[in-house]
Write a structure and sequence with these properties.
Chain lengths: 162, 162
DNA sequence: TTATGGTTTCAGTGTCGAACGAAACCGATC
DNA sequence: GATCGGTTTCGTTCGACACTGAAACCATAA
C-alpha cells in the first residue's frame, strides 16, 4: 500500500495554491503548474520535496513537474539538492531570493529606456516627432535612477532588520 | 491613384517599431500589432492617424487594427477622437499617461502581498511553514510602502520640472 | 435616396505552448 | 548482473489566441 506524502491537506490549502498559481499566470505569464509547485513549496512541511512527491501532491504528470521544476530552478527561486546514497533529488524554495526576482522584473521594465533613447536620437531632428518621445524618455530617465536606489534601500533596510 | 499616407519611411524606422513591438510582447504579453501601433503613434507625423492609415502604414488587416486599437484605448495609452463633419476617427498616443501605466504594473506586482498575507494567517500555527511565508511577507510589506512613495516622488519631481 | 469612405463584427485558419503519458535513462541497492 | 525508484526526454493532444478577410454596419456627402 502506498503512503501518499501529504496531499494538499485541506481544501483551503489547495485553493490558496490555485490562487497563487493564477496570480503568477496572469501577471508573470508563468505556467500554472510552475505556480502550483512554487506555492506548494512555500507551505509544505517538511520544506524539501522530491519531484515524485510534487507530482502526487499536485496531481500533475511527472513530465510536467520535471519541466516546470527545471524552469523554477533556472529562475533561481527553487533549488535542487542531491545527496549521495539517495537517488531522489530534493527541491526547496529559496524564499530569500524573492526580492531579487522582483528586482529583476523591475529592471526589465526600465530596459525600455535604451530603445526610447535610440528612437530619440533617430528622430531628434523633427520637432513634433521628438516631443512625444522626449516626454516618455524623461520619465524613464527618472525611473532608471530611482529603481536601483530602491534596491539599495532594501539592502540597507533588510540588513538593519536582521 | 491612391496616396498612401507615409508608410514606415526608412527601414530603420520600421525596425525600431519591430523592436518596440517585440519588447512589449515579451515583457507585457501584448499582441505584436498592438505594440506596432503604439510605437508608430509615438513617432508618426502628424501624430493623429485613422485606423485605415494605421492599417496601411503597418500592413496589418483592418480587423486586427480595430481590435488592437480598441485594446490600447482601453489600456488608456491611446485616445480616439471624432469630429463632426468627419466620419473617420483619429487615434493618437497619450504619452503623458505612460507613467500611470508603469505605476499600475508595479502595483499589480505588489498585489501579491494580500495573498501571501492570507496564507500567513492560514498557517500561522505551524512554525516551519510560516517561516518561509514570513520572509516573503516582510519583503512585500516593505515594498508596498515604497511603491506608493515612489510615485508620490514622481508627482513631485515632474511638477517641479515643468 | 444612393454612393462613399471608414469601422466593427465574425467565422475560419494557423501557430504556439501547456500538459500529458509512455518510454528511455540513470544511480543506487541487492 | 538484475531490479527498483526516480527523473528526463519526446511525440502527441488539446486549447488559446493572434491574425485575416469578407460581410455587415454606420455616418456623412451628394
Amino acid at each position: 500500500m502506498v503512503e501518499y506524502t501529504q496531499r494538499t491537506d485541506r481544501p483551503a490549502m489547495s485553493e490558496w495554491i490555485e490562487q497563487m498559481a493564477a496570480y503568477f499566470e496572469s501577471t508573470e505569464g508563468m505556467p500554472l503548474i510552475a505556480g502550483r509547485v512554487l506555492a506548494f513549496l512555500l507551505i509544505c512541511d517538511p520544506p524539501e520535496r522530491t519531484a515524485a512527491e510534487l507530482s502526487h501532491a499536485l496531481s500533475a504528470s511527472t513530465g510536467s513537474i520535471s519541466t516546470n521544476v527545471r524552469f523554477l530552478v533556472r529562475l533561481g527561486i527553487v533549488s535542487k539538492t542531491t545527496r549521495q546514497g539517495r537517488e531522489a533529488a530534493l527541491y526547496r524554495v529559496e524564499e530569500h531570493r524573492w526580492p531579487e526576482l522582483v528586482s529583476a522584473r523591475m529592471h526589465r521594465m526600465v530596459e525600455l529606456e535604451s530603445l526610447i533613447d535610440s528612437g530619440l536620437r533617430m528622430f531628434s531632428g523633427q520637432g513634433e516627432r521628438a516631443r512625444r518621445l522626449r516626454t516618455v524618455h524623461e520619465f524613464y530617465q527618472w525611473l532608471s535612477e530611482e529603481i536601483p536606489e530602491l534596491w539599495r534601500r532594501w539592502e540597507r533596510d533588510s540588513r538593519r532588520r536582521s
